[in-house]
Amino acid sequence: MNQLASIRIFAKVAEYLNFAEAAKQLGISNSVVTRSVATLEEHLGVRLVNRTTRRVSLTGTGQLYWKRCIELLRQLDDMDECIASAMGQPAGSLRIAASSLYATTDLPDVLAAYRAQEPRMSFDLTVFDNMSDVAASEFDVCFSTERRLRDSSLVCRPLAQTHDVIVASPDYLARCPAPCTPGELVSHDVLVASDAPSRYWEFRDTHGTQRVIVQPIMNIQSPQVVKRAVQAGLGIARLSRSFVRNELANGSLRALLDDATLCGDERTVWLLYSGQPYMAIALRSFVDFVVERYRQKPRENKGQKEACVGPEQHRPSNTELLSSGIL
């Protein structure tokens, strides 16, 4: 029996109180998790986990053993960190949280490039549709693309800025001619992602500002689902340009109302992490890599509207940062 591997598996089961979720987090099969915990219990001669068809819980002995397991695994991580520090190389695992917008666009390339540079690193990724779905204690670093960040004591690094675009599919436009003016949107089927303004959209042109009341036929939290619905021809939507860049390029989506400027369309990509006095070498390495990657990224043309990375900012309110300027 590989006791250390069994301890790691048991610790994950104890954390989630769910064998299937533990298997998912570890990237192994359910049967391996079940067999490993059973083997560990046989080795110790005690029951650690109560199993029923409805729930999983720890026995009293299991609770005590889990606490010691956490201490042991933390010591092992510290040992790895000590060696990595002595060698000047990061090693270990980073807990990363990312909005679905970022996770389906830039994040895979960022992680692939970083791991090519630091092959000893691994990642535990959580994807969310709304920043309120995750707590700061659940990640080491977070990528957020929300319009307004919650008040927080986290360090905030603005990486880039993109703008929204109004889109529809060729199939939808074949049935319903594209709107020529913002006011014509009222006669179209509109789909709304929950992070987009849902009551009205404002546009600015040579004649001034026009507010268009929208009555969506679908309002859903996930921008990914909204994009897929637009591709299927269900209606018109307002989505981040970076999120639909490939679809605009291959023609599966078309941009609408290019002659009118959409107001309040800015989205900032933020890198968030704890401002601890002594940052772990793995976290510092990753943050420095991401910031430098965006700093060196060439500016895109004005039509794509992307701004470059800004400085590290410590403020009591993240919402203040959005109005303070990125550069």
Automatic annotation (TrEMBL):
InterPro entries, A to Z: LysR-type_TF_proteobact-type (IPR058163), LysR_HTH_N (IPR000847), LysR_subst-bd (IPR005119), WH-like_DNA-bd_sf (IPR036388), WH_DNA-bd_sf (IPR036390)
Q: Which residues form the signal peptide?
A: none
Q: Where is this region: Disordered?
A: 300-327
Which Pfam families does this UniProt record tie to the protein? HTH_1, LysR_substrate
* Residues covered by the HTH lysR-type domain: 1-59
Keywords attached to this entry = DNA-binding, Transcription, Transcription regulation
Q: Which residues form a coiled coil?
A: none
> Locations of Polar residues compositional bias?
318-327
Query: Which family does the entry's similarity section mention?
Result: Belongs to the LysR transcriptional regulatory family.
Q: What is this protein called?
A: LysR family transcriptional regulator
